[in-house]
Structures are given as structure tokens and as C-alpha cells.
Write a sequence for this structure.
């Protein structure tokens, strides 16, 4: 018996933090470059995929790829746990580990000619940003572009300028909601994301809807959209789970019989409808 | 298929020990049975029909291991290094679990580094073990050809005395391992004897009505959430069931700094632990014990996994029942959900 070594899927690659942007007091963005130049040039991702980011000796976490800007890989991270707290201390010039990209992204290739609707909540918009940019850059390739984003407070809104730019595009609608805002502001509704549904204009029979946010927000929105006449198979959701391996081995993100890391994180609504309503999976 | 006659099992073990590190389940003074290395020439009797406390799982999927080291310059994988090994005398349930994990970990370099160096010698069980129900989940009592390299099956006994064994070479690796050994070819009667033996053994299993009903109720989504929650009061999250389950494969990773090196480790984990699915934000899709319990048993008996894995996640060894300090091992659970 001779052992046939298999490529080790767990090994990260070193990357350097080229730039660090403090977005809000607890949210920062990294622009990264792989130390290996060839790897940096070859790296490709689909909109909605994620990377495993590793801080030496501390831990590894899944973070969705926000974009590739000026040929640098961009990740936006909220400081919530042990690993992200440590990551927040790193500065430009420091190195981290990356492996990826992983998972199934948004079905952008199937959206040509259709209306495209993004419904996101909080930092849940990060996995959708590159997909929105893709649709925004080619307004004639797709039908209408509708973006609905909700936050708790207006000040939680990231990339406001970017959203304002999108608002100016032809055939495009940007709708914003703040659930805990007490005063009325121009271009803002008060309430959860569903308060925006009435104002959104798109062809319900010929659209793709992409949802990203907390489980409850996504399952509630998907249910309402289906009631409004959007076929369930045209609704997609991006799920978030504890992940430790990203390749379907460690079991933490198991969701029904699927693994969010490799079968998702983007699922069509019919694929996850039953399990999403059932806590524990 | 090459089939030979064997007077003494130890003869085969000793032959294999010439070129392999051999592991066998050995009973200690307390009656507990564990996998231990046996050297060439060692006089340890082979006892058929024993159920080791643990399956050979940890010989492939280590309870704790290093995955890689970053030495300040680069990431270096830390693969286990092994010479050729034999796991000797593995029963059908445990072999079925190994083939299940072979599928799950087919791309895992650590598992495969051990697995590819290992020859499996299976043995047919001739009586049901305490709490075992392999027959009900298509995992025994006899060893299927495709899950072992060599299979031992007893010849008919005379006056209760074993008269010898048939040795079935069920893979190329198995055939190669015994080539050069002085063995008599068996005549063709072995297969009908083996088949008769299987039918006799299967007839001795206790009723499995609760298992069959429980599986049906899990798959019909007929077990109310409140019942899972009530049953879960008995679970103290000790994770004994997952540790002993030969198909459980969940692990957690952790990163530690050792001197100037950064080391990634992995350790066995269990979905019955409250923090198993908890995210950094504090969100926990399975904060309730009942949801975790449903998740565990769903994984063992749902048809949803059959498409991916080719079988149920349970191999009917019954170890979870014997280790559970509450009363939520497989028989207790299936009794309660099938009568609910």
C-alpha cells in the first residue's frame, strides 16, 4: 500500500494588509494582497463566496469577499468575537492567512435580462456588494436594479456614498429603512426592511431576488415576497453559520443534510424553506 | 474470490505482524476491551464476538491532532506518518462505519494518510451483542465484501468447539497481504455454510420494532418539538454518545502559539454541546437542548443523508445506549419516540 498524498485544503496562504479603513467604531475594512504575487493575480471569486481569514495563533473565521478594488481583495469585518477583536488590532503592513474562496455564490449568470432585487440588512449587505456592483456596472445587461437595505440606526449605514451613486443610475431604485430611527429623514423609511416592499418596482414574474441578513429577516422576507407573487425558486438567500473548516468536514454549519460552507452559503428558497423554519438546523 | 482454510486465527495475525503494525481488541482484567498493538510472536489469544468499548475510529480520525505549523516563514502541514497497519478482527458494524467515514473524509489528508496505510481484517459476528441492532440498519452481522480486505468467518462448530475459520480475500490488498502464506484453498461449501450461519445469527436478534418505528417517525417529521425538549432534560451534554459513535465525525479547530510556532489543532467535537453552533455574535441556531437532540438523531436516521452517504448514519453498534448516563441512548430514544 502506498499512500497517495492529497493536496491539503486546510493550509492558508499569507497575505498582507495593504490598507485598513475604519468604517464605523466597530467595523473595519481590509484591502489585502497575497504575498505570493502569482497567487494574487490568479485569485478569482464568485459574487457571494467567502474566504477563511486566519490570524496567527488566534483563530480562523469565515468572511464574505466584499470585492476586488484596485486589484486588492477587500473584506469588511465587524468586531464581535475573540478573533475579530484581535484582528481589529492589526495595522497596514501586518500579515494574515487566507484560504478560499469557498462555497456557492449568487446566481448572477442566470439574471441576464431580468430585474434584479437585493434585500439586505446591516452588515449583511457585504456579501451582496460585489454582486450589486456587477449589476450596476452593466445596467443594460439586466432589467431593473432594486436595492433595499435596512439598518437599526441611520448611522449604522455603511457606504452611504456608494448607495447614493447607485441611486443615480438609470432604471435603478435604492430604498433604505432604519428600524430604530425616531425622526424622518429624506430617502429613509422608518421600520424593518419589509416596509420598503410596497415601494419597490420590479417585474415579480421575471426577477431574481437575493436576500442577505439574519435568518428571521430572510425567512420573513421570502415568505412575504412569495405572497406578493415572486416565484419561490427565484428567491435566493445567503446563510451565515459557525464554520471551522469550510469544506464540509467539521460539521458545525450542517444545515439539514446540506453544509452551508460548501452547498451554500447561497441557497434557493425552496432548498432551505423547511429547514430554515426549524431551529436547531 | 480466493478463500482459504485457517486452523488458528492467531496464525494469520502473526503472519500479518511480520510486515504490519497489528491492532487487535484485547480484553483487560475488568472485562473492558480496547484496541492494542500486538507484536509479531506475541501470545495473545484472539477472542471472537467481542465488542470493544470504542470502535477503531480514533485510529483514522484522531481525537486530537496538529494540522499545520506556521514557523514564521511558511505554513507546513503536519501529516501523521505511519508504516503499514492492520486492524485485526473488526466486526461488521465498525467496518460499515469506517466505510462511511471513508466517504466523509475522502479529501481529508490526515484521515487518508492513516487510512491508506491500513489493511482491514473483518470478522463475521455469530451472535448479537448486547444492545446491538446492526441487522436493522443493514450493517451486519456479517461483513460485506467491499468494506474489508480480508474476512474471517467461522467453520461449523462440533460440540460447541470451533473447528477453524475460512479466510476470504475480498480485495487486492487483502490477497497481496496473505500471498506467500502457507494456506489451504477452501472447497466451495464455505459460502453456503456462511449464508446459513448468517440466517441463524439474524434470527437471534431481539425485536427491533422500536427502531423501525422510530426511523419512520423521524422521517415523517412526526416527533413533536416538545417531546425532543422533554427528552433532552436527560442529556447532560457529556458527549459520550458522539465520542463512542463510530460515524460521528465533527471536530473543532483551535489555534495555539507554541514558542515561535503557530499551531492549528483539531479535536473531536459534539453537536450536543450548547456552543457547537454558536456564532461570534452570540446567535445560536441550536440554543435549546431539544433542538440539538433532534439534530443528532436526525443525522443518524434521516433519509436525507442516504442520497449523499448511501446509508443511514447509524450502524447499530448500541454504544451510545451503554455509555449514556441519562436515558437518551439509541434504544431509549427510539422507544420513547415510537410510542409518543
Amino acid at each position: 500500500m502506498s499512500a497517495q498524498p492529497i493536496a491539503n485544503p486546510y493550509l492558508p496562504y499569507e497575505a498582507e494588509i495593504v490598507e485598513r479603513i475604519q468604517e464605523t467604531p466597530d467595523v473595519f475594512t481590509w484591502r489585502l494582497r497575497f504575498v505570493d504575487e502569482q497567487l494574487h493575480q490568479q485569485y478569482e471569486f464568485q459574487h457571494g463566496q467567502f474566504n477563511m481569514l486566519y490570524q496567527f495563533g488566534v483563530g480562523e473565521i469565515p468572511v464574505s469577499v466584499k470585492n476586488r478594488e484596485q486589484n486588492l481583495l477587500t473584506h469588511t469585518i465587524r468586531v464581535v468575537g475573540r478573533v475579530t477583536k484581535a484582528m481589529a488590532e492589526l495595522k497596514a503592513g501586518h500579515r494574515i492567512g487566507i484560504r478560499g474562496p469557498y462555497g456557492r455564490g449568487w446566481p448572477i449568470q442566470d439574471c441576464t435580462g431580468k430585474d434584479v432585487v437585493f434585500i439586505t440588512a446591516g452588515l449583511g449587505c457585504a456579501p451582496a456588494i460585489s454582486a450589486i456592483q456587477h449589476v450596476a456596472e452593466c445596467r443594460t445587461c439586466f432589467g431593473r436594479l432594486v436595492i433595499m437595505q435596512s439598518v437599526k440606526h441611520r448611522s449604522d449605514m455603511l457606504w452611504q456614498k456608494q448607495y447614493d451613486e447607485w441611486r443615480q443610475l438609470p432604471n435603478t431604485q435604492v430604498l433604505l429603512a432604519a428600524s430604530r430611527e425616531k425622526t424622518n429623514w429624506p430617502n429613509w423609511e422608518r421600520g424593518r426592511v419589509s416596509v420598503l416592499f410596497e415601494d419597490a418596482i420590479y417585474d415579480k414574474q421575471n426577477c431574481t431576488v437575493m436576500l442577505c441578513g439574519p435568518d428571521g429577516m430572510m425567512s420573513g422576507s421570502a415568505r412575504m415576497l412569495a405572497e406578493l407573487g415572486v416565484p419561490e425558486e427565484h428567491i435566493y438567500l445567503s446563510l451565515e453559520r459557525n464554520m471551522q473548516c469550510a469544506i464540509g468536514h467539521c460539521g458545525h454549519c450542517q444545515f439539514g443534510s446540506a453544509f452551508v460552507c460548501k452547498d451554500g452559503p447561497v441557497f434557493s428558497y425552496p432548498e432551505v424553506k423547511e429547514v430554515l423554519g426549524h431551529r436547531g438546523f | 474470490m480466493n478463500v482459504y482454510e485457517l486452523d488458528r486465527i492467531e496464525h494469520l495475525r502473526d503472519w500479518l505482524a511480520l510486515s504490519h503494525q497489528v491492532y487487535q481488541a484485547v480484553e483487560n482484567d475488568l472485562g473492558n476491551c480496547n484496541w492494542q498493538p500486538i507484536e509479531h510472536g506475541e501470545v495473545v489469544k484472539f477472542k471472537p464476538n467481542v465488542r470493544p468499548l470504542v470502535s477503531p475510529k480514533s485510529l483514522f480520525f484522531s481525537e486530537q491532532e496538529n494540522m499545520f505549523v506556521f514557523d514564521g516563514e511558511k505554513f507546513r502541514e503536519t501529516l501523521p506518518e505511519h508504516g503499514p497497519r492492520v486492524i485485526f478482527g473488526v466486526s461488521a458494524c465498525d467496518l460499515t462505519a469506517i466505510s462511511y467515514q471513508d466517504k466523509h473524509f475522502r479529501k481529508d489528508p490526515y484521515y487518508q494518510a492513516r487510512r491508506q496505510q491500513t489493511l482491514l481484517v473483518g470478522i463475521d459476528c455469530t451472535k448479537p451483542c448486547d444492545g446491538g441492532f446492526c441487522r436493522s440498519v443493514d450493517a451486519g452481522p456479517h461483513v460485506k465484501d467491499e468494506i474489508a480486505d480480508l474476512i474471517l468467518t467461522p467453520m461449523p462448530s462440533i460440540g460447541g468447539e470451533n473447528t477453524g475459520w475460512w479466510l476470504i480475500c475480498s480485495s487486492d490488498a487483502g490477497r497481496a497481504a496473505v500471498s506467500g502464506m502457507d494456506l489451504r484453498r477452501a472447497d466451495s461449501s464455505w459460502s453456503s455454510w456462511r449464508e446459513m450461519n448468517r440466517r441463524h445469527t439474524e434470527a437471534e436478534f431481539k425485536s427491533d420494532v422500536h427502531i423501525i418505528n422510530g426511523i419512520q417517525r423521524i422521517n415523517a417529521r412526526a416527533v413533536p418539538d416538545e417531546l425532543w425538549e422533554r427528552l433532552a432534560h436527560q442529556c447532560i451534554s457529556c458527549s459520550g454518545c458522539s465520542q463512542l459513535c463510530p460515524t460521528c465525525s465533527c471536530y473543532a479547530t483551535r489555534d495555539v502559539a507554541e514558542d515561535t510556532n503557530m499551531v492549528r489543532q483539531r479535536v473531536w467535537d459534539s453537536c450536543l454541546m450548547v456552543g457547537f453552533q454558536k456564532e461570534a455574535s452570540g446567535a445560536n441556531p441550536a440554543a435549546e437542548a431539544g433542538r440539538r437532540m433532534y439534530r443528532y438523531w436526525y443525522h443518524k436516521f434521516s433519509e436525507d443523508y442516504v442520497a449523499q452517504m448511501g446509508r443511514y448514519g447509524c450502524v447499530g453498534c448500541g454504544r451510545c445506549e451503554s455509555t449514556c448516563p441519562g436515558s437518551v441512548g439509541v434504544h431509549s430514544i427510539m422507544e420513547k419516540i415510537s410510542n409518543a
